[in-house]
TrEMBL record, chains A, B:
Pathway: Carbohydrate degradation; glycolysis; D-glyceraldehyde 3-phosphate and glycerone phosphate from D-glucose: step 2/4; Carbohydrate biosynthesis; gluconeogenesis. Gene3D superfamilies: Glucose-6-phosphate isomerase like protein, domain 1. This is Probable glucose-6-phosphate isomerase. It is an enzyme of class 5 (isomerase). Pfam families: PGI. HAMAP family: G6P_isomerase. GO terms for molecular function: isomerase activity. InterPro entries: G6P_Isomerase, SIS_dom_sf, SIS_PGI_1, SIS_PGI_2. PROSITE patterns: P_GLUCOSE_ISOMERASE_3. Catalyzes the reversible isomerization of glucose-6-phosphate to fructose-6-phosphate. The lineage of its organism: Archaea, Methanobacteriati, Methanobacteriota, Stenosarchaea group, Halobacteria. Coiled coil: none annotated.
Length: 431, 431
């Protein structure tokens, strides 16, 4: 993985990072790296995520999913960190990403329609909930189970569960003798992509989870005390410095359709980890070249409150544009679609630099299991680094708990402080 | 459509809009409404978009697509405004949204894989380009055409073209005697969802485009000189006022899977229209309840630089959560998935208000053709209103042109000012 910060330097962009500022930051990176390395060593909460490349045993996952590897489809029942990582991996690596279906919302129409379209006898079920009590996940799983039963399909033959050692899901595993995979200790859901939490569907679809872990391991080996030697830290440090100088938005724009989900995964990782204490960049997801003709207007000419992160693989499939005799299209003749996409990428970076707007480039050699593993790990390490530099609690999410309690109270019908606040919430309607 | 601005008022949120500020703004809304009404009356560039509900003739579209209504799939070849509207409509209204496939990027792998998975003899082609020269669209169309030819499928029998009266696509229409639909006069692509630009795939899938247009017409009738009488203007005015007070980000979060694409459509409309002259909110897309457990951390506890727009239909399908005998799940017993989703929605709005963060609610009676038409039209009108209040050129996109010229130059191989800038763009690599 390569990171290019040229278009984020102070001599190019405003906000930008001056080189002497980077040098000063590099000393803080060294200290942060020590903290991170010690946290990994001790297996401390959160930092333990960076040990997953070596601690996740792919053969354990392969063994657990063995009974369902004949399934054509796999439906993941989970939410947030328990679904997005898995979705990101199959979207990037599967020949047919449609074989992995996600139920990570409680929209009744969507659930109904999705289940109705699947051949249930040929669809494995991957349930993921650390606590085994997540409302959305359990509600959906109860619906899924009943749908299988109503269709006369034995769901117990098709289900793999990833959950902790106690709770309703763990009980269910015992009752029905289901394969259970553990959730890794000390790893918040959003940092768990490189464990059974993120790898079960990929294993069912027989994707290269070993390569993914070894790519992640390579990125782990790249971490060191200086941002100048570590692409992940360089990325994190530059984001931090730009945020300090006013870049409150980080627009993440992969130039590869298979990485569209990666941008979504990154967005939740970044927002939930770093959106605290009145700070934290807002991740904005975009896709190149598609969004280039709309969002770029804002990125180049709007407020100087953002940075753009572009991501691409260096290798692309070979799809030549057929010849045409229309003069106005002659510039396309002899081109390849990949060349066109790369021309758009180069043009975007240059056009941001030309307008003095900061951009950071992330390049992978190729978009395969190793490349993706490297990217996911590097972004996790970058997130943790930013948390250290900003001195915030990267691994907690206190601000989402209020809403969870409120939703729970609303459903159970008991009156709590939260449900009262919901009932009395401000309203000013315009019809 | 109903808009609730209660949680965006100054007494609740910071940034927030005070009621006397709204009153003052209402006078400016009256003036802006006059400009907009006059622009519509004269069919002026851009404003003409608001006349589409009455000017688009659905029977012309139905007639043009008649030869291909037997197709099981339709593949749209277009980019930006020429694809997103169409995608938004079928995603919201089709029973099987997978019947509409979009090629709006030039990622070679994706194109190859997508075409390989389609039964071409049963797949209609919908090509959309106003100028008929858009590089991505034409390159993709040349690839699509050749793929059909290689498979021995007569693409001319399956193709519908939406383009202007001249250019390579118009020529092609003549050569092969294809059905051609016009692009509406004076309507930028991103405002063209309610014309043939956005409605052809919906018509091929036999969706209710008449209902869509009549819903949009109802929203048009709601426009008037006061924000207090017009949900669309109320929304636009509040966004404008919040932006003025520091809400540089507008996080749009529909609580309905079928509206996920709507958020994407809104993002390009908002960014490309309003991201100018150093201003413009950054649209951030999210999906409730899925993203509630991650993004909400940032929205509640991050910088006070954003507002949240939540959108939901009032009616939902009935999918009860099956009973369970696990104590810890008893609060789910007797609930319905829709109730759970609505509890999450209510909890999110209340939790933002409780943290003093501004939120605006948009509610549709139901998510059908009328409701969607109303929503799309209202958001277009809101965008135009913000442009008037901010005194910017809503309907142009000068900042994307540089990149287009650069990409074109890179492909043709001629050296231009832009290609030189690309070649000399700043670089500082960390490997």
């Amino acid at each position: 993985m390569h990171v290019d910060i040229g278009a984020a330097l102070g001599e190019v962009a405003e906000p930008g990072v001056d080189e002497d500022e980077l040098d000063a930051l590099d000393e803080r990176v060294a200290t942060a790296h020590e903290t991170i390395a010690a946290g990994r060593e001790n297996g401390d909460f959160g930092y333990a995520a960076l040990n997953l490349p070596e601690e996740t045993d792919p053969s354990v996952i392969r063994e657990a999913v063995e009974p369902v590897t004949d399934a054509e489809y796999v439906v993941t029942v989970g939410i947030g960190g328990s679904a997005l990582g898995a979705k990101t991996v199959t979207a990037a690596l599967a020949d047919r990403p449609d074989r992995h279906v996600i139920l990570d919302n409680v929209d009744p129409e969507h659930i109904e329609r999705t289940l109705a379209a699947l051949p249930l006898e040929d669809t494995a079920i991957n349930v993921v909930s650390k606590s085994g009590t997540t409302a959305e996940t359990l509600a959906n799983f109860l619906v899924v189970r009943e749908t299988y039963e109503d269709a006369g399909v034995d769901w117990t033959e098709l289900t793999v569960v990833t959950t902790g050692e106690s709770g309703p899901l763990a009980q269910l595993v015992e009752e029905h003798d289901l394969p259970r995979l553990p959730v890794p200790d000390g790893v918040p859901g959003r940092f768990a992509a490189l464990s059974s939490v993120g790898l079960v569907p990929a294993a069912i679809l027989d994707l290269d989870i070993e390569g993914l872990l070894s790519g992640a391991g390579a990125a782990a080996d790249d971490l060191g005390p200086s941002l100048y030697d570590s692409p992940a830290y360089a990325y994190g440090a530059v984001c931090y410095a730009l945020e300090e100088r006013g870049a409150g938005v980080n627009a993440v724009m992969p130039y590869a359709e298979r990485l569209e989900l990666f941008a979504e995964w990154f967005a939740q990782l970044w927002a939930e980890s770093l959106g605290k204490d009145g700070r934290g960049q807002t991740p904005a997801r975009a896709l190149g070249a598609t969004d280039q003709h709309s969002q770029l207007q804002l990125y180049r000419a709007g407020p100087r409150d953002k940075m753009v992160t572009v991501v691409r693989p260096r290798e692309r499939a070979d799809v030549p544009v057929p010849e045409t005799d229309h003069d106005s299209l002659s510039y396309l003749s002899g081109a390849d679609l990949g060349q066109l996409l790369d021309a758009e990428y180069d043009a975007t970076v240059a056009s941001l630099a030309q307008a003095g707007r900061p951009a950071v480039e992330i390049e992978l050699e190729r978009l395969d299991a190793e490349g993706l593993g490297e990217l996911l790990f590097a972004m996790e390490a970058a997130t943790i680094l930013v948390g250290e530099l900003a001195d915030i609690e990267t691994f907690t999410q206190p601000a989402v708990e209020w809403g969870k309690r409120a939703a729970r109270g609303l459903l159970s019908g008991e009156e709590t402080e939260e449900t009262k606040t919901v009932a009395e919430r401000p309203s000013y309607r315009i019809d």
